[in-house]
Amino acid sequence: MIPVAKIVGERGRVIGFEPLPGSYQLLIRNIALNGLTNATVFQLALGDRSGEIQIFGTRGAATIVPRAASRNKSSPAAIIRVTRGDDLRRTACLPVPKAVKVDVEGAEFGVLSGLKETPSSPACDLLCLEIHPRFIPAEVSPEMVLSLVRSLGFNRTEGRQRGSEIHLIAEKVGA
Length: 175
What we know:
Layout: H1 2-8, E1 14-17, H2 21-33, E2 39-42, E3 45-47, E4 51-56, H3 66-71, E5 76-84, H4 85-91, E6 99-102, H5 108-113, H6 117-120, E7 126-131, H7 142-151, E8 156-162, E9 165-171
Parallel strand pairs: 1-2, 3-5, 6-7
Antiparallel strand pairs: 4-5, 7-9, 8-9
């Protein structure tokens, strides 16, 4: 978040989400230390519903997907707030972003399901997504995630394997 906020400068705006209290506080301090006025962070997770949910693991390896937690032998860390991204964007009067980055350790399908309107907007033309096939819920496949990305209007996708993860860049070309 910090490097991107520096790149876009005062003309741009970066909005992030960090549900873990310790990581959230660290991010807030880093934003202040770097003198960034164009970065906003919400202490919550994005998902396909709003409410509270259990998060497993620790900073850098936290997930809301029980399957991912069991594979990493992670124990519950906290109860966190989760909200649908489209609902938050409307209620907080946030602009539609030009680009969206999602790295949620197996919860990709849920995050995108709760965020369909935002990346579907013509104003959003780039989606960077890490897909974690080993961690996604059993009823979800990487192909379902890719199909959802395409249904949002992204007609050019490029995926690269990095270990067990798929790093996907999706763009709207000629739209």
